[in-house]
Each structure stands twice: as structure tokens, then as C-alpha cells.
Amino acid sequence: GRLPRSAWVGLSQAALAEIDLARGSEAEARGLFTEALDHMRPTLGDSYPAVLEAQSRLAGNTARAAGDARR
Description:
Layout: H1 7-23, H2 26-44, H3 49-70
């Protein structure tokens, strides 16, 4: 079955992802942002500010990592 989802867990994971980004750990940050969204979307909804911010950070981080890989 599906695991329970929690807005608090998602918000915490997003905060940890921000720390990983600040430390330069982009792969870890991507994973945490993805997990955060898995928790936040069903509990907070797609238009909640923290969900939109995590989506934006994930998209920007992913694009940056792809650009770095091409160099």
C-alpha cells in the first residue's frame, strides 16, 4: 500500500534540501526536493507556496546539474 504523507515531513525535507544546495550537494538536494514534493503535493496542494518553491528549486537545480554535466 501507499505510505502516509505528511506536510511537515515535506517541509522539513525541503529545508534540508536547501542546506544541501548551500553546501554544494546538488544530487542530495534533488533527492530531498523530490521526496518533499511527494509529501507536500497530496497534503498541501499544487498551488501552496512551499510546493511551488520546491518545484522551482528542483527545476533550477536539475537544469544547473545538466549544464554542469555537459561541461
